[in-house]
Amino acid sequence: MMCLSVFCVLFASQPEDKPRRKSSEEVKLIHSDVLYKNHYDVRADVLVGHVRLYHDGMYLDCDSARFYKDENTFNAYGHVKMVQGDTLTLISDTLLYDGPMMQAHARGHAVLTHKGTKLVTAVIDYDRLEGVGFYPQHGTLYDEDNVLNSDYGQYTPALNEAIFKDNVVLENPKFNLKTNELYYYSDTKVASIVSETNIISSDSTFVYALRGDYNTQTGQANLLDRSHVYKDMRDIVGDSLYCDENTGVSEAFGNVVLLDVENRCMLTGNYCRYEDKTGLALATDSAVCYEFSGPDTLFVHGDTLKMITYNQKTDSVYRDLFAYNKVRMFRRDIQGVCDSLVSHERDLCTYLYGQPILWNEGQQVFGEEIRVYNNDSTIDWIHIINQAMTIEQLDSVSYNQVSSKEMFCYFVNGEIEHNNAKGNVYVTYFMEESDGSRIGMNYTETPELNLYMRNKKVDKIWTSTASGVMYPPVGIPEDKRYLAGFAWFDYIRPQDKDDIFEWRSKKKEQVLKKTVKRVVPKQKLENL
User: Fold this and answer.
1) 3-class DSSP state of 192
2) What is the pLDDT of residue 384?
3) What Cα–Cα distance (Å) separates residue 481 from each residue in 257, 451, 471?
4) Residue 6, H or E segment
5) N or C: which end of the chain has fewer CB within 10 A?
6) What percent of the chain has pLDDT over 70?
7) Closest C-alpha to 10, from 181, 168, 124, 147
8) What angle do CA 441, 444, 448 make, to 5 degrees?
9) CA-closest candidate to residue 336, choices 319, 321, 351, 317
């Protein structure tokens, strides 16, 4: 009776929210080769050889048993096999059974089988009323390709639900999962994550999760609580995260960060999508691209940001960045705004479209289109196309200005060193003495101009054939002080990395009207 007492204590330790009902049906002896009494245990019928017992829809076979008919319990020994219905089987070396409570305690090479799922452990406590099997020490559950190990667990066949705790390891040919607590559903093959979990896939994808669902069959995961997906030095994290290992698609929502360590850049936003197979990364809703390759971080914001990485996993990898609608960018040495932006890393060129403006300290340039060419991570030169204008602010009313059809600005160490303007060039330039006092303002018209800077000041100017006028400081005509199209866009200029989210449009009268190329109509030659 010692074993039976321990058996009852084990089940009494399981928490119960309400009083249990008891089975009134008697345990029935169907067959035994031998039945006798033993004076050491006078209350028990000793059964030996091909023993079969039945209770409330359950059959049990064993080599021998002690049958306590008055208590409606029995202890079974040797090749024990309990069968319930046509889907559940429990085998073990020994089994203690409480008929009124409908509880079984299997010990020694215990195996619980339900449909295609098999639980193997040293001890299984199975509650027939609740339909739950417990194992208090290490156990392994086999379910098709999934093998789950843990120090403690319980399995509910009717719900196809298994709960694993302590040193949980799920092994699959496609991945390995490690955690301290896991819920697993054998009908859907879904693992429900409820604690800190690491998943490593065969393709080296690493998933870190605190809460969510992972479909072990399809490789799809819906994760919460700032979960991570890391692969090929790219890390994506968000308040919620969806990833599909088969398609290589990851989608993140809420405070998303997509970090590309190899390319030294990062995308953030409230929605991000990454496609591993195509190298496409997309960010929207407060989207920002962080460029870390330069001496300072460049922040680029737009309604939509798209980054594509080409030739992945090769030595010739490169990427393109596309920014659409209300683009604003900030770096300590340069700021800019435009309607859309395209940056080609292989060409080392960034194209700005739609009313683009760039600032470099006290310098401002704008036109219909701006192309920025880089030398590694620093600006090498800028090409402004159509209605090009560069402006240098001297004080609140005085500006050096150059306008032309197109313009080239060359940089050295992040500062403008040389401007080249071509086509209908107009110049307004304030002459100064060495002490900084102004001599007057020079107004010039020329087909081409080269302007050279030194120490952030105009050093010399070269022009082709030119006509101009020198005005004294007190005699500058108002219609010559500012060139046609002049605008100082200080009210638009991003002031810091947080100001890139605040879109400010040009004043209506300062918006450039796109030039239209005149096309000579085709001439028809009459047949002679």
Assistant:
1) strand
2) 96
3) 48, 19, 10
4) helix 2-12
5) C
6) 94
7) 124
8) 140
9) 351
Chain length of the chain? 528
Rounded to an integer, what distance in angstroms lies between the CA atom of residue 464 and that of residue 442?
Answer: 16
Res. 524 pLDDT band, cuts 50 70 90: low
- Residue of 294, 290, 279, 303 whose CA lies nearest to 257: 290
Q: How far apart are the first and last CA of the chain?
A: 126
Residue 472 CB coordination number (10 Å): 10
The alpha carbons of the chain give a radius of gyration, in whole angstroms, of: 40
DSSP state for residue 232 in the 8-state scheme: T
Residue 434: how many other CB atoms lie within 10 Å:
5
Encode pLDDT of 219-272 as tens digits: 999 999 999 999 888 899 999 999 998 898 999 999 999 998 877 889 999 999
Displacement of CA 499 from its chain's centroid (Å): 25
The whole model's pTM is what? 0.81
What are the respective helix, strand and coil percentages of the chain, to the nearest 5?
Answer: 5, 60, 35
Helices (H), 419-468: none
Q: What is the pLDDT of residue 12?
A: 37
How does pLDDT run across 48-70, given as a tens digit for each residue?
999 999 999 999 999 999 999 99
Concatenated DSSP letters for 289-337?
A: EEE-SSSS-EEEE-SEEEEEEESTTSTT-EEEEEEEEEEEEEETTEEEE
332 phi, psi to nearest 5 deg? -55, -35
pLDDT value at position 20?
61
Cα 373 from Cα 175, distance rounded (Å): 45
Q: Determine the pLDDT at residue 10.
A: 36
Span 159-197, pLDDT tens digits? 999 999 999 999 999 999 999 999 999 999 999 999 999
Contact status, residue 83 vs residue 89, Cβ threshold 8 Å: yes
